[in-house]
Write a structure and sequence with these properties.
Length: 130
């Protein structure tokens, strides 16, 4: 697993200079199978196909996370970023406002799961390539 690529993707994402599809492509090429973005602890945990792990910081201004996950608001926020109406920092704030405490991206499984503080989840399949 190429940790330099993981760090670069995190930096570029937070600087809003790379899109999610570009991140997924680069991480897949770097040997990443999945990752977890902990929005409370502001950490990103990446897992490789051979069992390797990498932990990095997520440096951004977060907001308080309510107790209940609003799956409809998470879904709308995902649609907004997919359609280019918002960037990554706004995406993070809005999913936190919707009650998301962390999310996990399964690159090989082509889905992301957004978790509320009490374990409630919203599963989002990756869009089909055009």
């Amino acid at each position: 697993m190429k940790t330099d690529v993981i760090k670069e993707c995190t930096t570029l994402s937070l600087a809003e200079q790379i899109t999610f599809p570009e991140v997924v492509m680069k991480l897949a090429e770097a040997g990443v199978e999945r990752y977890i973005a902990d929005l409370v602890g502001k950490k990103k945990f990446s897992y490789g196909k051979q069992g390797e792990t990498h932990t990095g910081d997520l440096v951004f201004d977060g907001v308080e996370i309510p107790e209940k996950l609003d799956a409809a608001m998470v879904k709308q926020t995902i649609a907004d970023i997919q359609q280019g109406r918002i960037k990554y920092q706004t995406f993070l704030r809005r999913i936190m406002e919707a009650g998301c405490a962390h999310y996990e991206v399964f690159i090989t499984g082509r889905r992301a799961i957004y978790f509320g503080r009490n374990g409630v989840q919203h599963i989002e399949e990756f869009p089909q390539a055009a």
